[in-house]
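User: What would this chain look like folded?
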Amino acid sequence: MQINNNRKNTNNNHIPNLEEERDIELENIIGNLMIAQYQVDKLRSRLGERIGGYGSASNKKTSTNIFKHNDKWYKISMRVDEMSVDHPDISSHLKE
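Assistant: Here's the prediction, encoded as structure tokens.
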């Protein structure tokens, strides 16, 4: 924890000397959390536009990545489906 004195006492006796305690690590964590939330919102927006057809002329909803690691080949495939959450079973599952 770091203590900063944000006011300078310049021979004015009527200005109190205020000390403020700051936890720099906590401020960094909160700042990183705010940045991460912004990035999540931005990525969700881009994904929604891409799925909805605004971001791509081909409107592909699948992606495949193939890579080699330690002499083994891996294939990762993703498919994105747009869905409605009007059904009670889906709505209750999403709230959990």
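Helices lie at 24-52, 88-95. If you want, I can go into more detail on any region.
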